[in-house]
Amino acid sequence: MALKAVHVSDVPNLDCVPDALCTSRFLKGVDAERATSLKVPKFLVIGHRGNGMNMLQSSDLRMKAVKENTILSFNTAGKHAIDFIEFDVQVTKDGCPIVFHDNLIYSEENGSIYEKRVTELSLSEFLTYGPQRELGLEGKTLLRKTKEGNFLNWAVESDEHACTLQEAFEKVNPSLGFNIELKFDDYIVYKQQHLTDVLQAIMQVVFNHANERPIIFSTFQPDAALVVRKLQNTYPVFFLTNGGNEIYGDVRRNSLEEALKLCLEGGLQGIVSEVRGIFRQPAAVKKIKDLQLSLLTYGKLNNMSEVVYMQHLMGVDGVIVDLVREITEAVSKMARPRGDVEEKIVLEGEEQVIVEGSRPQFSQMELEFLLKLIPELIQQ
C-alpha cells in the first residue's frame, strides 16, 4: 500500500496556578450520532509519540532521551500524570498496523543512503530496521532526514525496537488513553477504497484489543477522518490542522474555519490545531467550544508551561506535549479547590477577567506579560 524551544528563564515565575483539575478521563468511547455529544471531563495532557518526539539535531538532550513511538516511550510517559499518549499508525503492505511516524524509512548500505516507503514494506521487512528483539541480532541502520535535508543516525539514549499497534494495546497500561493518529502522506491523493481498506485494518485491531481503554482517533487527512467516522461511532474522531500555518492543495486543511466546517459536516467530535493557529485566532476557540466541539493543540510551544496555562484560560481542552514530565508537573499545580479564592484582574482598558478557584491565578504583571508574549511566540 502507498500511504503515506523556547527558553523560559526570563519569564516571570507563575507559582499560583491550576492539583489536577479532575481525575476522570474520557469514557471508553462515545456512542453518539452528533459531534456535540462529546464532553472532555478535564484539561488533558497527551504525550507526543509517547514520551516526546525525537529531534536529533536539537541540543536539548530531553529530545533524544527515549526512542519515540515505542513501547518503552509509551510506558515511560505513563509513569507521569498523563492522560493519553499520541502515536502514529500506518499499515504495511501485508495489512499489519504498525507504529511509526515518518512516511519514508532511511538506511545505509555499502556507503550509500537509500529510502523505502514504510507502507510498501512487509511487516517482517519493516522490523529489520533499527534495534532488534533478539539479543545479539543487529538490525539495519536507521537514519532520519532533517527538514534541511541532512541525514542523521537515529541515535537516542534509550533505544528500542519498533512495535505494532496490537503490541501497544498488549504492553501498555490499559488505563492510559491512546490518541491514535491515522497517518497518511500529505502529498498523495488516496482513493476512497484504499482509505477504507487501511482504516478497516486498523479498526479490527482496535476493536479486538482496546477493551475499556480510552481512544481518540485523529488525522490530517480529511477524507480519512470522514471514513473512520462512518466506519464506527464508538470512539471520537478529531481533525488535525496546522491552523493556517502551512498551505496545502486541499483547502480543507488550510484554516481553523475549514476544519470547523469539516467537523460539522462529517459529524466529527473535535479539532487538534497547531497551537500558533489558536493564538493567531483566539476568537476561534470560543466558536469551536460554543458548537460543543472539543479542542486540543500540538506544537513546540506546548513545551512551555506558560503557554499551556494560557490555553487553559482560553478554554482549550488539552495539549499534546514532548516534555511530558515537566508539563504534567506544571498542570498538576494548575487546579485549586472550588470556592477557594476568587480574584478579579483588570486588563488594559475596562475589560475584567474573574479568575475562579479552578483557574490559574495570575498577577496583573504576569498576565500582561503573557498577553504581550503571545505575538512573539507565534513567530517562532
UniProtKB/TrEMBL annotation:
Signal sequence segment: none
Molecular function terms, GO-annotated: glycerophosphodiester phosphodiesterase activity
Highest taxon of the lineage: Eukaryota
Keywords linked to the UniProt accession: Glycerol metabolism, Hydrolase
Domain annotation GP-PDE: ranges: 43-331
Gene Ontology biological process terms, A to Z: glycerol metabolic process
Pfam family, one: GDPD
Keyword Hydrolase: yes
UniProt catalytic activity: a sn-glycero-3-phosphodiester + H2O = an alcohol + sn-glycerol 3-phosphate + H(+)
Enzyme Commission (EC) number: 3.1.4.46
Similarity comment: family membership: Belongs to the glycerophosphoryl diester phosphodiesterase family.
Protein name per its UniProtKB record: glycerophosphodiester phosphodiesterase
